[in-house]
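Quick one, probably user error.
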């Protein structure tokens, strides 16, 4: 199944329009604490350790514990790559309403480093800081 793609401003509009929608931030807890979309839930899809990355083996289980599979999910990360992976895993696990937020929190860049999709922060959307999982 192909994952729907959205942008941070469109994701924000969805969150405002649909009180059941959830922004699922799949970045690390440290990245999340430094700044995240207001009201986001944090479940990392990868961990960075010792200069490398490793998948979070509990990613799908953790999301299943927090949210029903029919929850409209807007999955975001820093730029859109990890969130695409997380969205793929969730759809495979039976989640039925999943969108990848292209540009994520920090913006998607092309091979020259130019921003091609502004992120949540640079779009001027509401940002929160601090650790922990927040739920809308």
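Nope, works fine. Designed sequence:
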């Amino acid at each position: 199944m192909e994952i729907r793609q959205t942008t941070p401003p469109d994701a924000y509009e969805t969150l405002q329009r649909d009180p059941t929608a959830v922004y699922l931030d799949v970045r690390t807890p440290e990245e999340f604490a430094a700044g995240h979309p207001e009201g986001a839930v944090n479940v990392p899809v990868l961990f960075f350790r010792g200069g490398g990355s490793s998948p979070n083996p509990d990613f799908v289980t953790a999301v299943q514990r927090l949210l029903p599979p029919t929850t409209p999910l807007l999955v975001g990360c820093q730029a859109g790559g990890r969130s695409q992976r997380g969205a793929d895993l969730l759809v495979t696990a039976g989640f039925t309403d999943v969108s990848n937020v292209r540009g994520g929190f920090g913006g998607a860049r092309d091979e020259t480093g130019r921003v091609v999709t502004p992120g949540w922060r640079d779009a001027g959307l509401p940002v929160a800081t601090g650790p922990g999982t927040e739920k809308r």
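The chain has a mean pLDDT of 93.
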